């Protein structure tokens, strides 16, 4: 029988206690309170296995319908993030509001990222099902507002509301999977969800262009309504996870209002100048610098509140003492920077430098996504069979380092076979990190922190994407302007090609080739940045340690005796 200390290490509010034949040791309240906060959920391998969380996997038919619903949620939320990019010209023509067009992406991105960390704690308080349905509802309301918008202001409001829901959808999908599946089995499905996310990121612009050309730009938002309704229906009928006890008043009292306010404000204050810098405002402008300083100050206040004030903090600061958490989050942040930076600027290489149209240019990135799909799913199967995962983030990062370095060799006449192989390699790198990063943080904490660390995975990845696009975008613009100025010192109007790529064709053929080379020069610096970011991701990933992935199967009763699982509340 395990010692008292071993039982204390494993006990918490959501732990399931196996009762086997024999006596059950009873611990006093004083003993239980001596070590309330544990920094690891993994027991000593020589001791009796620590009891694990009871996973609530439904019958096969219900489970399949839930997986379909979750896949739809990820597909729609990811699709909505990028589908509007090809609809912008039609929207600006209808509303005659070119100056506000950047807000279509900014409003969605800021609200989705800012509210994402809150959903984990809210799901602990109000339950997974209620929180997921609420996020779905917000997303569909925002999509409806955007689809029937009669002005640019109304469209921006719709995008902001949809973003509030989308952030919750992305977070709750992984939390629900983790509640239903044991540590090994969930890796396979997290890989599948990662593949869905990547697929929608590429097909989004193609769908947006098709809707705009053949129907209306409004279908870019209306498409969410029927499929979102199916998702809500499947979740409402089939998802049956335990609901936290307590009255509504009790649950409302548990919310960390102060922490929620300061976290949301800090994220908004940081993301807005990052999205404006180098475009709407110069990076050295007072508003950009002022907002960034204010954002980091408010973030510091949030940390103090979570550390010293909050009774049920949104983000328990002591968790960051755990090696796997800071290593994984650091690796994710830098991989997000490299991934989105490359994905964002690849179309410029194909459409401007290689002179391909938008449809063909979009299809050129399919190998990137295909690589992600292959390794996302295959690494999930590996985890299911072998139970090891810690090496995947480092393996993925080094793949992306090599792939990004090879992207620097791209020229105007590079053969398609070469770009396919290189982008496949980049995709392999990103796919290896999807499920392993989530498992790395979940395996390192007690079950009661699972929702918190899972939502933080999505939050950190989103932050990395925003920082990556901002930094890489600034580098690209600076290098492009410098190169154009060096090659066309007497032509002050040459910068017009950076505002509208079609202006390139107003120049003589020999000058057009020079302009192409200027764009290629700037794109190469995007890939240089990606090499640096993915190298930093690799360094952080090397600190990730392996933890045994417990399953219901390997947590059986002593000497193969069956268990009765009793959930502690």
From TrEMBL:
Gene3D superfamilies: MFS general substrate transporter like domains, Multidrug resistance protein D. Keywords: Membrane, Transmembrane, Transmembrane helix, Transport. Its main location: membrane. Residues 1-22 are annotated as: Disordered. The keyword Membrane applies. It is a multi-pass membrane protein. CDD domains: MFS_Azr1_MDR_like. Residues 1-11 have a biased composition (Basic and acidic residues). InterPro entries: MFS, MFS_dom, MFS_trans_sf. It is found in: Endomembrane system. One of its GO terms (molecular function) is transmembrane transporter activity. Pfam families: MFS_1 (PF07690). Residues 66-549 form the Major facilitator superfamily (MFS) profile domain. This is Major facilitator superfamily (MFS) profile domain-containing protein. It comes from Modicella reniformis. The lineage of its organism: Eukaryota, Fungi, Fungi incertae sedis, Mucoromycota, Mortierellomycotina.
